[in-house]
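Lecture 7 notes: from sequence to structure.
We start with the chain below.
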Amino acid sequence: MKKILHVISSPVGEGSFSIKLGNAIVEKVKATNPGSTVKENNLVTKQYPHLVGAEIAAFYTPEAYRTPENIASLKVSDEAIAELMEADVIVIGAPLHNFGIPSVLKAWIDHVVRVGVTFSMSEKGYAGLIKPGKKMYIAMASGGIYSEGAMQAYDFNAPYLKAVFGFIGITDVTVVRAEGTSMPGVKDTALEKAIAGIQINTPVLN
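Predicted structure tokens for the same chain:
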């Protein structure tokens, strides 16, 4: 049994390729690990706030010195991190918007990548604080082909997500792509091909 966190960032709704691909990944994880539970976090409807001075000040205030205002500013971040910490498998829907991730996904990342909580900083450098053993799947959707060819250099989505989550300790990351969703001759089978290519390598629990 696995605890699955499905993070949705597409504003398109149920017609979204990244949502459909993410759902397919979730279903395959569940099939591989019977009894698994799923928690969905829709960033479009939840709307995590972009960081402002109050949150940043609270992040860098030692716990013993936090004011009630600091604690209130940390509430959203604390809840998001708790969800991430609790999950065994994280599925992130990540449509490619202007060569990068949607702003709602960046806002959520800014709340979960937090000094002293999900990564440490010392004279020895940086270290991720997320415990080993988590598996992450990136359900990436794009209108063009970005896994190879001329447009590959414009994919700042998958490299960024692998880097930022690796930074906090989530290094087992698989990118599943539904690409060419706007291209004639490709779009009609793009999602089907992506779903067929999903490989689940999370441990099977007996």
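Points to note: The beta strands are 3-8, 37-42, 89-95, 119-122, 125-128, 135-142, 173-179. The first helix runs from residue 17 to 32.
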